[in-house]
Amino acid sequence: MKISLSLVLLFFAAYLQAQTHQIIKHNDEKVNVNFIKIENNLIYYTFPESSEEKKISKYAVAQLNDKSNKSHFIASQKIDITKRGDYKKVIILRETETIGLKKLETIRVFTPKIKGESNLSTQERGERRLKEKAAFKGNPFFVIVSSKNEYLTAISYTY
Questions:
Q1: Cross-sheet strand order for the sheet of 91-92
Q2: Residue 60 phi, psi dihedral angles, 5° rounding
Q3: Is the pTM of this model over 0.85?
């Protein structure tokens, strides 16, 4: 009886020790994980019962809590878009940085090239128009997926 009780307590203690971190997402979901690293705006981790490496966007995570020493790391601040003027808060992401974010809708804007304008300034003007349109709809993120024939197409994301 003592041996079986000792084994149960040992396995339980090992299970608790394995969960070294807790991810708190911006949508208030909490996940117990084993933290590995942060690289290229992605947080790499494994689940305690698995050794398969997973990743999530830094923008989907509010904070990362270390259970062993009670410290926490703020991964990103939540972006609240309330009006069209908040377009400066909207972030353009790469496709790989959207893991853990919810895909919403496709946004498309027409950006004709003005005579004498450089390609870079046309691109910047198109990105600003995409940001304004995303802010109008209340979406804090988007990924540009196409820029053909003076049209910019993007997919918007949220928490």
A1: 91-92, 141-148, 151-158, 102-110
A2: -85, -15
A3: no
